[in-house]
Amino acid sequence: MHPLIKRILARLLSALLVLWLAASTAFVAIHALPGKIEDVLAGDLQYPGLREAISAQWGLDRSLAWQYGHFLERLAHGDLGSSYVMQQDVIQVLSSQIWPTVQLALSAGVLATVLALVVATLTAGRSRLSRRLASAVELILASTPVFWLGLLLLIAFSFQWRLFPVSGATGWKSLVLPAVTLALPLAGVLSQVTREALEQALEQAFVTTIRARGLGELALRLRHLLRHALLPVVTLGGWLIGSLLGGAVITEKMFGRPGVGSVTLNAVLSQDLPVVLAVVLLAALIHVVISTLLDVLYLFIDPRLNTP
Amino acid sequence: MTTSQPALPDSILSHDTQVPPADVRPARQRRRWPLGVILALLFLAVLAIGLVVPHWLTRYDPLLSDVSQTLQPPSLQHLFGTDRIGRDVLARVLYGARYSLLIGLASVIVSLVIGLVIGIAAGLGQRYLNEPAARVFDVLSAFPAVLLSLFVVTFLGQGIVNIAIGVGIAGIPKFGRIVRSRTLQVRRANYVTHAVTFGLSRWQVFLRHLLPNVLNAIPVIATIDIGTAIIAVSGLSFLGLGPQPPTPEWGVMLAESRDVLRVAWWPSVFPGLAITLTVISISVLGKYWQRNFEGRPQ
Amino acid sequence: MNAPFIEPTAAQPAGAAIAAVARTERTLVDIKGLQIGFAHANEGHPLVRGVDLSLRAGECVALVGESGSGKSLTARSLLGLAGQHAQVSASRFEIDGRDALRFSERDWRALRGTFAGLVMQDALVSLDPLRTIGAEIGEVLAHHRLLGSRREIRARVEQVMRDVGIADPQRRVGQHAHELSGGLRQRALIAAAVAGNPALIIADEPTTALDVTVQAQVLAVLRERLRAGAAVLLVSHDLSVVAGIADRVLVMHQGVVVDSGPIDDVLHRPRHPYTRQLLAARPSASSRGYHLSSARFVAQTLREGIAPPGTVDTSIVREPLPARHRDLQRTVLQVDGISRQYRRAGGEPFTALADVSFSVAAGEVLGIVGESGSGKSTCANIVLGLLPPDTGEVQLLGQRWNGQALREGERRALRPQLQYIPQDPLSSFDPRYTVRQLLAESLYIHALSARQVVDRSVELLEQVGLSAAFLERRPAQLSGGQRQRIAIARALAPQPALIVCDEPVSALDVYVQAQVLDLLAELQARLGTALLFISHDLDVVQHISDRVLVFKDGRIVEEGSAAQIFNQPEHPYTCSLVAASRPGNPWHPSP
Questions:
Q1: I need a surface site. Which of B116, C34, C43, C393 has the fewest CB within 10 A?
Q2: What are the angstrom distances between the C-alpha of C493 and each of B160, C116, C427, C438?
Q3: At what angle do helices B218-238 and B172-188 cross, to 10 degrees?
Q4: Per-residue pLDDT tens over the stretch B56-89
Q5: Cβ–Cβ gap B13/C416 under 8 Å
Q6: Which subunits sit against C, judged by 3+ Cβ pairs under 8 A?
Q7: A209 touches chain C (CB under 8 A)
């Protein structure tokens, strides 16, 4: 079998394993809590029939092994249970709120990646001044908390200059500030890593060979170094997704945007366990899927890993 | 024509045994400290004072509200202005340092210790230890840090300790992976594999060569990671999962400042600035340490 | 003590006119008084001074010197690639008839790849590892728009690949550098440089660190190019490598040309003391038993009647080494039928060693030659007890040392008797240790007091020619030769019966190599330590060994005394090895 196919299969298997472990961990965590499950799941709510409903859904009167199997089965079918606090199936809660979050995460992710690649490719190996400047800006951005950056941008662009709305999710204008807020700190980190990788690549011997063919600096960067720069970006892809998802929670609260983030937050504050559980598992799923795709992409970009 | 030449003067090519010039001064003093490092140290010194003896730097009580002085812009009296209920912002920033810093530190320690143990065990062990450890890291890193902390908080309830635990657990894979790959690297290094030729036992090789060379990379990474932890902790406090008002924690202060954002910029700018400057300072110091650390980039 | 051995070199009539081969008159490069400096390096002193260099079509000029001599810098300045902040000046700097001092960056870029091509050292790092070699080779054509369509470029790429001797180009075009063997990779590198049909090929150490047979292949490709009318500027640190191909040679030392002229002149009648010392320090069959680093060139007139009057004869005078005492009755190391297989990721097992047997007597030096993949490293690791063999046994001083079921604890007591000198000493030193700590570790087994350890460490340093001041230094601050001496000191500390030397001088400059070889030979003779000397450099092995084993594909294909192996090789592989190393070596009579 072609070694590349083997590697891809290995990654897929590994991904499934991780997902299963994640779900199991969640299950163990729930059952390891002090107190009875029904009490935990119900929280402060008290109304007749609640305890029985919980018990039925989770199968709490059956054996632990049965509960585990049932749990996994439900997950496989996409049944994430019901939220008792909101009196709705979790799936419904999430699907109604997911679109604004996806919008936000996607636009911020693309913005961060493009910014990082452009800045890193243009400044790597250039004059000391431009490198120092880029380095300093990256450091500041990477050290700026998302929630503070949001506040600053709000002050500047919403209150001072009234360019963008303060909150809400209507129209593209309301997406700008949240996306920029979420993207900038991530762009800082990505740019740092990419630039360092590029500068290391610039010191390699093959760069001299390429210059000896008559290629100029721009051609060198675009035709050769860009591919080398993509490598660390792809490696960081998993981290990027995680940060986007986590950052979305904060940004949504910050800008008053509806979305999965605010739903989760409310669930945490009201100890609505099924919702939190579902969100966390969903995030893990997205993370694993995208990481696996990026791993496979890496194998395509870097042929050195393909030989046995 | 030419006769045999007399013996040549001492060879053009010098003998190879000259002693290289000594570096009399220790490495750190060889160059002047860069401006950034000095500034970082200064800032952190001020912060340290704020941590231990804040009353040296401010005479105001961070919890005392003065309704006659609500939302005053920065002035000579109140350098950072006052907030919504008349509390001095500078005092609150100074007194709030301890929360973010100490909790950030605590969570890093949690990540470090657990990550270290698993990482070394994984790096040293055979296949059956190595692969599961890698999976553990994959699982832990599959949950975004914020969400993982949310998960933990849901179970354990709100509070600053629980936030620290959540951020700590989320940070395990970062250390664990680095320690594991470093252990694998050192384990294959020639100075480790050849140490047996001098009659050292496996345990001695582990203690003398492997462990020190794995551990010496840690402090630098840990330092830089404290910055990330501080941001994470204050972020969760911002969301309301940490200390509750009126505690002057920086994240909480930022959350409170949202209400008055339209009319007052100073209650949001200064606490956030404190967080950012703290993280920048720690990063600058950490990177400086890294660069001068035997010249080896990690 | 024996009289110093005087080795006659081939006598040449002085000033004889060399039959001039008709060459095309086109002068490609004409440089006088070249000076290259960097504002912030070397305290502002120029790194290259007063170099005159000219090249005509069809000729090969070699630039020879040690690292730091400025040869690479000079070569690269012909492409304007001396470095971003290089200050290049000359009284004349003409490239293809034009004044290159006035070139803008655009002018330089126009001639790179089209007028002159660059071949560098290691194809693995000199080609973009993420692109196919087809893309790399064709890049010159695409970038300079030398050819129109993709199909034309592809056809030309395959043609060039055939020209440099890469078989089956259609398949290879889509492969990457790391998928090819060493020889094919270097050819691909050359192909990438000549795809644009440049008139000048600049080769910067193209054969360094390559196996002997691959070296020969690369030089053959360059000779082809010469025959086709190109000019070659060959940069190397090894005079014997360039001897087989160069017409003229310039010897550089510390940025200045110290010797120049036709290759025969420089090799046989070196004028400058540096060149003389360099040539005299080269190991060979005739230097066996003598010091290398103190060898001197001496010129004498021949008596009348033997050669035309005025003939100058140069010879090398060497000091003898102390006599070696071999006790063939005592066997220090006995290796019986060891073999070792590796399981590769692809699944097929790879045989590193198959049924290897040999022995080392007390006080003797056994040389092992082989190319990469021949199994010599695996053999060394098994002898050292770092790797268990799949079959067979190793005995040290008559006791079981390595076998399938043997554990470290059972042989630890014997460890001091067998020591190791590695190829890269720096990687076998703990990066945190000072020299003192390194030596103390090697003395660990003796369980000495702290005071005794220091005394013995100073003793060891003196034995290897270093002063006690080295104790507090870190290896990273020392030169390659000094590090190797520390490694030797560490190996001597336990007073072993046998030392395994794995390519101990391969990474060193010629003169430093000579010094280290002298040190090893002296210590070996005085202390009576046996050596297992592994190297791919046949000249070095010839110089120091009593007996030699030739390894190929995990087996010993020939075994005999050093003189036998190199003067009367029997096995075809040995013959090809010896032949491949000969054309460059001026001290051997042509076969």
A1: C43
A2: 59, 53, 19, 11
A3: 170
A4: 777 777 777 777 777 878 887 778 888 888 888 8
A5: no
A6: A, B
A7: yes
